[in-house]
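TA notes, week 10

Several of you asked for a full example with nothing omitted. So below is the full record: structure tokens for the whole chain, then the designed sequence directly under it. When grading your own attempts, check the secondary structure regions first.
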């Protein structure tokens, strides 16, 4: 891991994400890119192209750069290479483009956790980044002074398409030497006999050189509740899941489940594109 992108709207929750990024950067000798997306009102954009609102635009840019300068001076960023970027664009498009241009390895964003998410980048844009991002996205729900992962949950249906994102999750867990808890959530609408679910998980595991892991079958009313309740039962540090990118989530992680986890899970969530 060489570069970590942290989009910020200068909120408390965005700073929570930046603090976690700093801890990971120190562990991996990575650079942090702090990005602020300056999305001006539509009428102002029209004026910009007409040349009438350039002073106002420059004022917004100047203020954003001043705030980024203050953030970069935070003590928890000491001895970490930090790059500041202010980009005028729609958040999802700008974040995606910067991720490609800067060859980003991990995006870290903040959210309100169980109380819902909002503000410029903390809200629907967070969910859009999760859905569209080609690279892993880590969502932080609160201030975490010691981001040390010992137990990570990977909830899946353990089909062929889950193998690629699972490899990315393995690379992430190696940073922390974490134990992986693989879990299949069984619900009334997605019921599988235990012997079939166990076989699918065991077949899945045999393709990877795993040593520190466990497999589980967990029954619940729906998949979202099952993931959250199982994570609570083992006191997991983080939840890992797959996405289908621009086409939406896999049939196991459909849109409502993804949004539910991003909005309701108190624990950090990391997503990997299929």
């Amino acid at each position: 891991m060489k570069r970590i992108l942290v989009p910020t709207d200068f909120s408390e929750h965005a700073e929570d994400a930046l603090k976690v990024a700093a801890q990971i950067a120190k562990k991996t000798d990575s650079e942090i890119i702090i990005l602020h997306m300056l999305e001006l009102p539509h009428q102002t954009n029209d004026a910009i192209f007409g040349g009438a609102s350039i002073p106002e635009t420059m004022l917004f840019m100047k203020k954003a750069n001043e705030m980024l300068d203050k953030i970069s001076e935070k003590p928890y960023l000491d001895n970490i290479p930090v790059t500041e970027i202010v980009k005028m664009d729609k958040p999802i498009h700008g974040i995606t483009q910067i991720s490609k241009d800067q060859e980003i390895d991990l995006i870290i964003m903040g959210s309100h956790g169980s109380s819902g998410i909002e503000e410029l980048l903390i809200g629907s844009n967070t969910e859009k980044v999760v859905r569209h991002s080609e690279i892993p996205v880590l969502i932080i729900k609160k201030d975490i002074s010691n981001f040390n992962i010992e137990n990570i949950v990977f909830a899946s249906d353990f089909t062929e398409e889950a193998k690629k994102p699972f490899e990315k999750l393995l690379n992430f867990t190696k940073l922390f030497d974490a134990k992986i808890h693989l879990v299949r959530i069984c619900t009334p609408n997605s019921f599988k006999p235990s012997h079939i679910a166990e076989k699918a998980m065991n077949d899945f595991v045999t393709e990877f050189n795993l040593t520190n892991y466990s497999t589980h079958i967990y029954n619940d009313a729906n998949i979202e509740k099952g993931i959250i309740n199982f994570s609570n039962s083992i006191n997991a540090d983080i939840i890992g899941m797959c996405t289908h990118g621009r086409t939406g989530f896999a049939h196991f992680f459909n849109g409502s489940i993804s949004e539910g986890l991003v909005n309701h899970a108190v624990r950090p969530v990391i997503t990997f594109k299929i």
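Residues 43-52, 114-122, 246-255 have pLDDT under 50 and may be disordered. Use that as a sanity check on your answer.
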